[in-house]
Every structure is written in C-alpha cells, then in structure tokens.
Here is the input.
Amino acid sequence: MQEKTKRMWAGLTFTGVKVFTGISNALGLPVISTGRPFSFYREVFFGQRGESEVLEDLADKRVLDIGCGLTPFTPDSMFQACYAAGVEFYGVDPKLDGTFEFGRFDRVKVAFNRGHGLDPNAPGEERRLAIYADDLPFEGASVDLILSSWALFVWIDDPQILTSVFHEAVRVLKPSGEMKIYPTPNIDAIESALPNEILNRFEIRQVFLGRMSALNLPPAYRTTFRIVKNSP
Ligand SMILES: C[S@@+](CC[C@H](N)C(=O)[O-])C[C@H]1O[C@@H](n2cnc3c(N)ncnc32)[C@H](O)[C@@H]1O
Here is the structure.
C-alpha cells in the first residue's frame, strides 16, 4: 500500500474516533474503558511474536501500560501473563481506583475486543496503579518499555496533557527505552501535537497496522518512540 493511502486510512480512522469521542464528551459520558487480550498486544506491539518469546524478552524488564483500562482484570491479558511469569508489568490508569463497575456492558466491551471475561478479583493488585500518567511513582531512567493502547492521541489528545505525559516518559525511560503507542495518526499530526523539546529526545518510527475488517483493529499507525537523549 502506498504511503499516501496509509495516511488516508489512518486519517479516516482518526476522524471516526474524533467524531465518536466528541459525541461522548458532549454527552458528558465517561471515557470508555475496556480490556484486551495478550493476543491483541502481541499483534500491535510485538509483531505477532509468540507469547513465551515476548515474556522471555521482558523477563528482567520494567514495563508500563498507560491508560490500561480494564485490561488488568482480563484473565488472558498481557498484564496477567506477565504477572504469572514474574515480569514487572504495571497497569497505569486513574480508573483503577476501584470505581469500575464490572457490569454487563463492561463484559460486552471486553468480549467485543476478544478478551475472555473480567475477573474483579484477578491477582496483581500491587501492579495496578490508580494514577495519571504524568506523575509516575518510578525513579528516573528505570523503565524499559511503555505501552499504550487506545489511550494516547485518541482519548488523551489535549496537547498540554500529552506533553506532560511525554515529559514524564522521558524522565522514567532508560536510555534507549521505548514507548509504543497504537493507534496513532501519521507523523505530521504527532509532530504538531508535541513540542520540539520532546520530539528531539526520541527516534520515532511508524508502522501501518490494522485491518479494514476488524473494528477493534482499524487502520492506523503504531508509533515507537525510542529515547536517544534523556536530558536536554
Ligand atoms: C479508551 S481507554 C483504553 C483502555 C485500554 N488500554 C484498551 O486498549 O482498551 C482509555 C483509558 O485512558 C485512561 N486515561 C485517561 N487519561 C489518563 C491519564 N492522564 N493517564 C493515564 N490514563 C488515562 C482512561 O481512564 C481510560 O481507561
């Protein structure tokens, strides 16, 4: 597919999402949170690599999932797989403060995203951080990888909030640590949302993903931000 066509599809996806989030905000509805299986994370963040291969790779690493939603309560999630394998994986979301309802609608959202149910008593409470991503309880240069699915640039799109989240990411990521985000718009939209002082800290790569046929995997980019400079 030509670059121009990829941009067009990603643009359409983002226009659709913006219309949806705009209506949702206008109606005063809360941000929709859902849960996703490890297979989704492997597809969008790890190029379809096998579960054990990904877990082995992350064995001695610290990983954060920003705006994780209900994912830590999904039994077949990456959060739960990492917890069981002893990988230091944290879910970061202010909604983890215990206000989730785990109602029928939440279960429908998880099923729509191909997750297998929700377990309010799922293990790993100490790895569920009920906080905003711009104030992380980790020391500088101590995080290897940050993932973010359906949160940054989609629901969290205020340039000021995005900038403070990226400032915090720059602080906590190790030299050559990475932040992988899906879905994102193309690089032009990213460059206009973030200041140069942030952009200059990263090497930025984009891969076009998505299937026209899958509502939960619409055409858009996965963007990887790799730290090249930790301090100014
Ligand atoms: C649409 S949900 C995405 C949930 C999940 N990651 C997924 O892929 O389905 C967006 C999440 O971002 C969370 N969120 C909003 N602002 C945030 C912030 N500043 N820091 C961390 N999470 C935030 C919301 O509470 C919400 O659960």
About this structure: The two ends are 38 Å apart (CA to CA). The helical segments are 3-26, 38-45, 51-57, 78-85, 104-112, 159-172, 187-193, 196-199. The longest strand covers residues 173-184. The CA atoms of residues 113 and 215 lie 9 Å apart.
